[in-house]
Amino acid sequence: HSNTVAKTLGGKLYYGSATDNPELNDTTYVAMLSDNTFFGQITPGNSMKWDATEPEQGVFTFAAGDVIADLAKSNGQVLRGHNCVWYNQLASWVTAANWTAAQATSILQTHVSTVVSHYAGQVYAWDVVNEPWNDDGTLREFIFPEILGISYITTALVAARTADPAAKLYINDYNIDSAGAKSTSMQNLVASLQAAGTPIDGIGIESHLIVGEVPSQAALITNYEAFTTLGIEIAITELDIRMTLPETPALLAQQKADYETVVSACKAVARCVGVTTWDYTDKYSWIPGTFPGQGAALPWDDNLVIKPAYDGLIAGFTN
Ligand code: G3I
């Protein structure tokens, strides 16, 4: 594949992939992922989440996350940290008790500062808060907002900044590709954090999309710029474009066009720093397990062979 695609952050865009510890036994997979002339960035799919890093209160386990951080380091790849606070994959002890506000604040600060400190100096950007919104733009309820309200976001961001002043601090969500209630809520949040002096550097646009239902390039660019005009950067953090199986030539051709649309929209926006696909091969995609009957969402197939979507990805980066 082309050496012209991958860019470190010195270039316009990086291309990266999520990866996960169980897949690292697959030597062909790892060899391909470790080509840093192509993959400029990696994200751990699960191993830095709360249930993995603080499974019991005050007991921190970094072995699995360290494997991904070390892989990035030995490959010379940018590392994105994912994630500090999310409603899903919380450790069960977090949700099991009726915490006071002071206790909830302390739990949040301890978790964020311990995890971010552990990886300080190794992480380009952290998804400090993951998926804070419902699709209608209202605040998603889970234990921290239930106890602390929206201020849990500020608490997490401040703790992360103190723990690693060099890491870019992101909030990450899906269904914020084009204009709508959820995008508006995220943009209003960024503005209110900035007005309060709370650190916020970027918004992650996950981009779990559906073949044939990707917004137009113009709609993507308009919305991406609604974020960047606030003075922050953006990244496409979890791109995949799924279809209802079986694959057909028509679906694969549409998927190719859809990949090009998204990547070239990022390329067109000055402060869109990179595109990460949520893994690179269908072999390790989360889609079939979550959406039965759907899949084939990534640029490489189950046999690690490129699909038309790969050509769309390349076209987006190079055209
Ligand atoms: O660790 C257990 C293992 O012990 C057990 O044997 C196995 C059996 O099911 O499950 C393992 O846990 C799985 C975990 O991944 C680690 O492999 C969970 O069942 C599974 O639900 C979990 O899925 C992850 C999902 O987040 C959870 O919501 C996916 O791998 C991961 O790719 C996905 O990533 C999220 C992003 O973090 C946020 N945005 C959406 C994206 C897709 O859901």
From TrEMBL:
Subcellular location: Secreted
GO CC, alphabetical: extracellular region
GO molecular function per UniProt: cellulose binding; endo-1,4-beta-xylanase activity
Catalyzed chemical reaction(s): Endohydrolysis of (1->4)-beta-D-xylosidic linkages in xylans
Keyword Secreted applies: yes
EC number: 3.2.1.8
Keywords: Carbohydrate metabolism, Glycosidase, Hydrolase, Polysaccharide degradation, Secreted, Signal, Xylan degradation
Assigned protein family: Belongs to the glycosyl hydrolase 10 (cellulase F) family.
Name of protein: Beta-xylanase
Native organism: Mycena maculata
